[in-house]
């Protein structure tokens, strides 16, 4: 089937969120070919497809990077807004929506396995993301509806038509999706904010460029509005995401420092909401190193940056067409470490790139040994179809695997967190660990800290004492929870002090304390401390303590959106005490109704029993 161009009147400018054009005007469709299997055709005519649109259940699976995760959250938000139910259960779903990644072969293989499983289950299927966008003629995508990476704001239309039995493909568009679309966050405290799509590079191994295309940046004003909105929603971490953060704005006459300073100005002065800058390649931040370092020193910005080097050999970097040298990577790392206290840097390495000699690999090993970075993502080279590197002579797989194991062994021998024991750190807590017993927080340098505490601590900041260190994270003891008096700008209709203003009131020469605040600004009026009670319930021990508490939690958790988009400001959010919400008016009315129903039933049963007894006499 030919790709369907965006047919909206006005050059693809889009429609207001929540508005659907008639299908004939908005989406080109065609019935599925008669040559498809009868079994699959019959599944499209099942009773589930005859339901009222917007009442079906959707299974959504996401592969890949944080940008893909953000796209999935936007698609989930739109589907939920139109009444669709989202589920992690494949069997109960009426349709599967798979958001794909094309960076590595294993992720695409996992997608192909899932597509086969979906067809075997006779479920309607929609595929989104980089794989269909970059490989639209892939055999596995025959007969499948497709949503392109810049068409996520039309996922509802595609889902509706697919449930009717049509194959729909939306791949071409010249405008970026709006940032204010409905969104269901995987973690309600974390907003993944795409600042641009595509990149300016032409790496010989990269398939993502085929999917995301050339650089396209959102305007500074639109990103500022989004940050202002999510802060008011109660978000505590904002992750800037893109294929290359450092290239931001070069297509619209802006740059990364301009954007960062504008966003920081919107963050609360107490550091209750933190900004994390996304992955950036060396070429596009070299000219802005000092400005970026200044931003990274701000109390509301994590002192962390992901800077991929990919190889320690200039010869291999040239073959990769990475447009920088090892020396320029060193300059980025050395400058940031020198100018930003506690700076943490992550990097990427590709082992076994075509043409990599033993000497080239040894240079890579020596680079990693020299810097002993706390995070190194090591990958074996995977040739991606359609890329120049796929046509290069490959290194034997046994050599590639050996090099990958050797570098991994070197990296795992590092002990980056030794010496942190006994230190007092401020952390921001946003998640529950997979063991169900610890909360996950991060320091100003984005070092993961695991602590024991109640679920009510999610979305808060706390002072902790580091008690022990592991290879990948550290463990801490909560000393006190930091509470804030910051209120929403929108609700108060007035300006509040922001992160940039706090920084300006402090001397640039002032020392930075463990909590990330300059020492002469540590006693701000916006931050209060609450002593931590050690015997608070742990996350896995917060259970149904009584019938009423259980019912109240069930009422809270039965939202169609699973409360992912219902984050409240800290001053508006009901306080938690041992895992049970304090009672507000609605809770009291509910309790009154329960008690009234109980006494009514008892009265009726008593009356019936009394009547039976009197009839016997």
TrEMBL record:
Keywords: 4Fe-4S, Iron, Iron-sulfur, Membrane, Metal-binding, S-adenosyl-L-methionine, Transferase, Transmembrane, Transmembrane helix, tRNA processing. It catalyses: N(6)-L-threonylcarbamoyladenosine(37) in tRNA + (sulfur carrier)-SH + AH2 + 2 S-adenosyl-L-methionine = 2-methylsulfanyl-N(6)-L-threonylcarbamoyladenosine(37) in tRNA + (sulfur carrier)-H + 5'-deoxyadenosine + L-methionine + A + S-adenosyl-L-homocysteine + 2 H(+). Residues 185-417 form the Radical SAM core domain. The chain crosses the membrane at residues 589-610. PROSITE patterns: MTTASE_N (PS51449), MTTASE_RADICAL (PS01278), RADICAL_SAM (PS51918), TRAM (PS50926). Its cofactor is [4Fe-4S] cluster. Belongs to the methylthiotransferase family. CDKAL1 subfamily. This is Threonylcarbamoyladenosine tRNA methylthiotransferase. It comes from Salvia divinorum. The lineage of its organism: Eukaryota, Viridiplantae, Streptophyta, Embryophyta, Tracheophyta.
């Amino acid at each position: 089937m030919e790709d369907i161009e965006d047919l909206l009147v006005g050059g693809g400018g889009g429609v207001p969120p929540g508005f659907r054009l008639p299908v004939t005007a908005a989406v080109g469709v065609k019935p599925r070919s008669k040559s498809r299997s009868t079994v699959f055709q019959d599944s499209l005519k099942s009773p589930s497809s005859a339901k009222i649109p917007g009442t079906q259940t959707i299974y959504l699976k996401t592969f890949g990077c944080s940008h893909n995760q953000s796209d999935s959250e936007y698609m989930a938000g739109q589907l939920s807004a139109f009444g669709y139910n989202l589920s992690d259960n494949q069997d109960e779903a009426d349709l599967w929506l798979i958001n794909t990644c094309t960076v590595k072969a294993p992720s695409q293989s996992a997608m192909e396995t899932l597509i086969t499983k979906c067809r075997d289950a006779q479920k309607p299927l929609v595929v989104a993301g980089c794989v269909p966008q970059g490989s639209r003629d892939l055999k596995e995508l025959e007969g499948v509806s497709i949503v392109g990476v810049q068409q996520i704001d039309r996922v509802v239309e595609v889902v509706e038509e697919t449930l009717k039995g049509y194959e729909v493909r939306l791949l071409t568009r010249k405008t970026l999706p709006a940032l204010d679309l409905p969104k269901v966050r995987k973690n309600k405290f974390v907003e993944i904010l795409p600042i641009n799509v595509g990149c300016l590079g032409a790496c010989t191994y990269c398939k993502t460029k085929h999917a995301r295309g050339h650089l396209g940046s959102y305007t500074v004003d639109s990103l500022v509005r989004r940050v202002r909105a999510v802060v008011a929603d109660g978000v505590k971490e904002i992750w800037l995401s893109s294929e290359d953060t450092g290239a931001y704005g070069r297509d619209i006459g802006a740059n990364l420092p301009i954007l960062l300073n504008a966003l920081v100005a919107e963050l609360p002065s107490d550091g209750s909401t933190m900004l994390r800058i996304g992955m950036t390649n060396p070429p596009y931040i070299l000219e802005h190193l000092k400005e970026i370092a200044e931003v990274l020193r701000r109390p509301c910005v994590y002192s962390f940056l992901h800077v991929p080097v990919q190889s320690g050999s200039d010869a291999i970097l040239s073959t990769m067409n990475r447009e920088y040298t090892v020396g320029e990577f060193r300059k980025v790392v050395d400058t940031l470490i020198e100018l930003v206290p506690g700076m943490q840097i992550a990097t990427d390495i590709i082992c076994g790139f075509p043409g990599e000699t033993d000497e080239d690999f040894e240079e890579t090993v020596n680079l990693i040994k020299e810097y002993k970075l706390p995070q190194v993502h090591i990958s074996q080279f995977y040739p991606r179809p359609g890329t120049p590197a796929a046509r290069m002579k490959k290194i034997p797989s046994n050599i590639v695997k050996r090099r990958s194991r050797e570098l991994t062994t070197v990296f795992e021998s590092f002990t980056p967190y030794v010496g942190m024991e006994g230190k007092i750190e401020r952390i921001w807590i946003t998640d529950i660990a997979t063991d169900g017993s610890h909360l996950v927080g991060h320091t100003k340098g984005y070092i993961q800290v695991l602590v024991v505490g109640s679920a009510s601590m999610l979305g808060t900041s706390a002072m902790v004492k580091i008690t022990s260190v592991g290879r990948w994270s550290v463990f801490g003891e909560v000393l006190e929870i930091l509470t804030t008096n910051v209120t929403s700008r929108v609700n108060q209709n007035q300006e509040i002090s922001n992160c940039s203003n706090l920084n300006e009131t402090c001397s640039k020469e002032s020392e930075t304390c463990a909590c990330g605040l300059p020492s002469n600004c540590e006693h701000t009026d916006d931050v209060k401390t609450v002593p931590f009670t050690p015997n608070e319930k742990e996350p896995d021990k917060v259970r149904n303590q009584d019938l009423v508490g259980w019912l109240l939690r069930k009422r809270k958790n039965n939202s169609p959106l699973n409360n992912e988009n219902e984050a409240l400001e800290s001053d508006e959010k009901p306080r938690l005490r041992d895992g049970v919400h304090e009672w507000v008016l609605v809770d009291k009315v509910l309790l009154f109704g329960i008690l009234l129903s109980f006494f009514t039933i008892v009265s009726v049963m008593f009356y019936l029993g009394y009547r039976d007894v009197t009839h016997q006499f």
